[in-house]
Structures are given as structure tokens and as C-alpha cells.
Design a protein that fits this description.
The protein has 174 residues and is an alpha+beta fold. It contains 3 helices and 11 strands; from the N terminus they run αββββββββαβββα. It has a 6-stranded antiparallel β-sheet. The longest helix is centred in the N-terminal third of the chain and has 36 residues. The N and C termini lie far apart (98 Å).
């Protein structure tokens, strides 16, 4: 039997159309499955806010200087002013850390505590030395928030200014 060319051409066109439809359906199915999987695997992001504050005053070496500060609100409700020219800030659901831009080993950590943890360490105020660094730990009650602070900076007069700037942050918590 001899096939005519018109029949072969029609069969070829129908095969191509069916293949295109099947590939389109497969592509749609894969995209829908990927979207559903990515929706299920999302984690909630921790929301913090920073807003620019005009100016504030700070006393260093008996001189009052103007400083520019940002106000940082943690996910757990504590708001702190800090100087973005001196510190990078990061936070999660329990800890906020201000790291010196100049020295990554110089930092201030503010940790959220429970009331029972606070009561156990109510009188905690200790100073430790770790090589060239001084670590000062203390606990603070800020309204309904119970906080543990760890301040770490190098020993020496040249680091007194960064210590004063860290104390500025801590004064907001009292």
C-alpha cells in the first residue's frame, strides 16, 4: 500500500500539536509543584525596624559632642538607640548584637532572659579578661523585659571611647 504525502503531513502536524500540548501541561504541572513546595518551605523572617533619629548628645572626656543615632527595635520589643558609624547591628528572636565596625572582637550583646533566669542571676555583674579583651557581664530589668548584657572590648585608654558608646546603648535599657 502506498501512503499519500498529504496523510503523512497531517499525521506529522497532529503529532507535533499533541507533543506541544503535553510539554505545556508538563511545564505547568512542574511550575505549580515548585510553587507549592516553595510556599511550604518558607520560614518567617524576623522583622526589625531601624529609623533615623536626628541628633543626640554624648559626653566623652568631659566634652559634650553631637552624635547621629539610629533607633533599633528588636523582634522582642526592646528599642535601643545606637551609632551606625561605630556599630553594625544584628538580632534574632533572643539576642541583639552590636559589633564594632573597627574591631569585630569588640561587641555588645543584649540577650533576652526569662524572669526565672533573671532571678537566678539577679546580682550578676562580673568582669573577666580574655587575652587583650575585657568582658563585662550584667543583668538588667527593662520594664517587663529581662536582659543579660555582655560587653567586650580591648583593654587600654584608646578603647575608652568605644566603651562610652556601648554604655550609651546600655543606658537606654535602664
Amino acid at each position: 500500500m502506498k501512503k499519500n504525502k498529504k496523510g503523512e503531513k497531517t499525521t506529522y502536524i497532529i503529532t507535533v500539536i499533541i507533543a506541544i500540548i503535553l510539554l505545556s501541561m508538563l511545564l505547568i504541572f512542574v511550575n505549580v509543584q515548585h510553587k507549592n513546595a516553595s510556599d511550604k518551605n518558607t520560614t518567617s523572617k524576623i522583622r526589625t525596624t531601624t529609623k533615623k533619629i536626628l541628633k543626640d548628645k554624648l559626653t566623652i572626656d568631659d566634652k559634650e559632642i553631637d552624635i547621629e543615632v539610629d533607633e533599633y527595635k528588636t523582634p522582642w520589643g526592646v528599642t535601643v538607640k545606637y551609632e551606625p558609624l561605630y556599630f553594625k547591628v544584628g538580632a534574632d528572636d533572643k539576642i541583639m548584637k552590636f559589633t564594632s565596625i573597627i574591631d569585630k572582637n569588640t561587641y555588645l550583646v543584649i540577650e533576652k532572659m526569662t524572669e526565672s533566669e533573671y532571678r537566678k542571676s539577679y546580682d550578676l555583674k562580673k568582669t573577666e579578661e580574655d587575652g587583650n579583651y575585657v568582658l563585662i557581664t550584667r543583668v538588667i530589668k527593662n520594664g517587663q523585659a529581662y536582659l543579660k548584657t555582655i560587653k567586650c572590648h580591648k583593654k587600654g585608654i584608646e578603647y575608652d571611647e568605644i566603651d562610652i558608646r556601648m554604655e550609651y546603648i546600655l543606658k537606654q535599657l535602664n
